[in-house]
Amino acid sequence: MLGDDHFLPLLLINILAIVGIIVWHAQGRSRPTGRLVVQILFFTSMSLVLYIGGIAPHQPDDIYTKGFAALLSKSARVLWWTHLAWTIIGFLHIYIRINRKPREAHLILDMAVAVIYLGVALSVMGFVFGLQIATLVTTSGVVAVVLGLALQNTLGDVFSGIALTLGKAYAIGDWVQLSDGTAGRVTETNWRSTNLLTGANNIVVLPNSMLARQGLTSLSRPDETHQIALTLRFAARQSPRFVEGVMLSVLQACPLIIKDPSPAVALKTIDAIAIEVELQFHVASLAMGMSAKNELIDHIHDQCGASGLSLAMPAESLVYMPTMTGRESFAPSEEARLPGAL
């Protein structure tokens, strides 16, 4: 009689589980909240039927052991545990969306999903099919050691990716520069590697373990602004203050240079040949650096012609020449004396 009392609840649980799966898929990936509501409703309904029918999903069925009824009993318990996993995973997805977690959070989410499925799988094998969990765990531990040795490099990339994600060293869309000089925008991160889009429009794929070992400079934090320095040499016959004023006016006239923080002119050195200055300015993003620098050089050329400033020859084009009086002097090198040399 007790067995007959259980047959109808088991059948109802199977029907609810299958209908729940169909409705869940009908919601589509674009409606995560709707999917979660469906999961909660059907999982709650299945749990209520189990409770009313006096069926324990964490215990093997000792009533139906053979035939169609035994199949219904095991499938009902398996489907209940599966819906439990899906409901927990749905809550995790909604939590990430509500808290606006970064896109890299999918690494942590994937690991959490794997742990949930592993726990549910062990629960099904132990509670539904009555297998010895301790034996399974021991066997799986040996298999895990063998796989760990075989996939040592891959696992190193996986755990390095998790460490980089937890450390929040960068985010999708950030410009970064590595200690070896590689620079680019982060376009994708996954379990194994991180992809950088370089200024040459190439994708550089970096294993996470290699990325974790290198020094990394974020060019997008605390904001996207980027400082650029341009060194110039002017003929020493000009007044340093006059040179500074002219260069400041050039910096202020360039629309691609942001004015906060203000651009600056640093007078670095002066000798008998030249005054060396460094123009320091900021652009809105690293991608604007080349355009801003080209525009600045064009303005410098025009302003030099308008104000009478003369550019000096590069220091490396000068050679040391001792004189009869013991004084030091400099003269253009042989290359600088050639026709057409600057």
Characterization of this structure:
The chain starts with a helix and ends in a 5-residue tail after the last helix. The chain has a 5-stranded antiparallel sheet. The chain has 342 residues and is of the alpha+beta class. The protein is elongated and about 105 Å long. A hairpin with a 3-residue loop joins β7 and β8. α1 packs antiparallel against α2 and α3 runs antiparallel to α4. The longest helix has 32 residues. The relative contact order is 0.07. The C terminus is likely disordered. It contains 10 helices and 10 strands. It folds into 3 domains: 148 residues, no CATH class; 56 residues, SH3 type barrels (Roll), CATH 2.30.30.60; 86 residues, Alpha-Beta Plaits (2-Layer Sandwich), CATH 3.30.70.100.
* Overall residue-averaged pLDDT value: 79
Main β-sheet, in a few words?
Answer: 5 strands, antiparallel
Distance between the termini: 107 Å
Determine Rg (CA atoms, Å).
35 Å
Estimate the strand proportion. 15-25%
Compressed to H and E, one letter per element, the order equals: HHHHHHEEEEHEEHEEHEEH
Shape: elongated
Structural class: alpha+beta
Query: Could you name the ranges where pLDDT drops below 50 across 5 or more consecutive residues?
Result: 334-342
Work out the helix count.
10
Overall helicity: 40-55%
What spatial order of strands do you see in the largest sheet?
4-3-2-1-5
Extended strand count? 10
Q: How many domains, in number, for the residues?
A: 3
